[in-house]
Amino acid sequence: MLLFIASEIMLFGSFFTIYFFVRVVNGASPWPPEGFHLPVFVAGVNTAILLTSSFTMHWALQAIKRGHRAGMQAGLVLTFFLGLTFLLTQMLEYSRIGFSPSDGAFGSVFYGLTGLHGAHVFVGLTLLAFATIRAFRGHFTPEEHWGVEIPGIYWHFVDVMWIVVYTTVYIL
Amino acid sequence: MINPLRSEAEAYRFLLLTVGYFAAIVIATLALGRWVGFAVFVLLTVAGLVYLVRARRTEPPRRVATREGSENVRRILVVANETVGGEPLREEIRRKSEGQEEQVLVICPALNSPLKHWASDEDGARVQAQERLDASLARLRQLGVDATGEIGDAEPLQAMEDALRLFGADEIIISTHPPGRSNWLEKGIVEGARERFSVPITHVVVDLEAEREAPS
């Protein structure tokens, strides 16, 4: 697990290095550069959706630990659809944002960072889909629930990374 | 150092802390300026890193169920590394198995450097452990102790747990260097084993230097 975390930190770290390099090179000029407008409010709502999905994920695991199967199933379904909403909102944001990855260094690094995170959300959704199907097939018990625990850890990690991306790219 | 993503509950707590961490930085930056925000970032980052490095888990160790042994045979699991060939250890095994049929399994953990452990480069460590084990088994056979041996995990407690799942031990003998020279005693391996395993545990101290200096 530590090796996985280290590799992910290095992967995101390389993208953040590029981001801060571009930002420092930009100097005292306005940030984001002129002509680029980020939908801070929509992304903020999307952040709230993703944070809520972490709460439902935690609820799902707590439910199965207490032997409450329906709670786990509801938690997993809610988490999956909240994550899907996040991803679809991000795709909608891409279609309306008004610039593309080829529009200068800022465009490239913006799509690189948010796209890298989006790819992680997609992997998380795939894991959640499997966990949800297994939950409805009666696979998990209060003693044996690794199939929910591991996607849960991954999902929270993806949320942590989004908090970092949202704060640095959209707010600061 | 603790891993903040070891379990889902810990990962969830880490997420909440991350939200608080960035909220403090954003509020400080927007309300008081960029440099105050930077100061808050540095302070919180240092505090967080110090906590992660110094924090220790406080939950009780898990108890490990062991496989039942046979009634007619006394099964002894011996865990030792460099001291596997020491005279006190051989004497203890002989004493424990006296007067009844015994089965002795010697586990020799393949101790490795942390860097090689993380790089999964354990070939050299396993070869060295195998050499020590072969020499020890030969000495035990000379004393009339019928022993078999295996190379174990680099972590001694994990090596014991692995062995216990397959070998229904009635007793574990842990052999170490004397206090002050034993890395295992420093790490609390004997106490850890007593907390984790339900079978009786005997600790044998082997002073190899004294044995070498003693007249034969």
Compute the number of helices of chain B: 9
Strand content of chain B: 5-15%
Report the principal-axis shape of chain B: elongated
CATH homolog superfamily of chain A: Cytochrome c oxidase, subunit III, four-helix bundle
Structural class of chain A: mainly alpha
Question: What does this protein structure show overall?
Answer:
The complex is a heterodimer of chains A (172) and B (216). Chain A contains five helices and no strands. Chain A has 172 residues and is mainly α. The mean pLDDT of chain A is 91. Chain B is α/β, with parallel strands linked by helices and 216 residues long. A five-stranded parallel β-sheet of chain B has the order 3-2-1-4-5, sandwiched between helices. Helices cover 51% and strands 14% of the residues of chain B. Chain B folds into two domains: 47 residues; 140 residues, Rossmann fold.
Keywords:
heterodimer; A: 172 residues; mainly alpha; Four Helix Bundle (Hemerythrin (Met), subunit A); 5 helices; 0% strand; B: 216 residues; alpha/beta; Rossmann fold; five-stranded parallel β-sheet; 9 helices
What's the structural blueprint in terms of helices and strands?
The complex is a heterodimer of chains A (172) and B (216).
Chain A: H1 2-26, H2 40-65, H3 69-96, H4 104-136, H5 146-171
Helix pairs in contact in A: 1-4, 2-3, 2-5, 3-4, 4-5
Chain B: H1 8-32, H2 34-54, E1 74-79, H3 87-96, E2 102-109, H4 114-118, H5 123-142, E3 147-152, H6 156-166, E4 171-176, H7 183-187, H8 189-196, E5 201-205, H9 208-213
Parallel strand pairs in B: 1-2, 1-4, 2-3, 4-5
Helix pairs in contact in B: 1-2
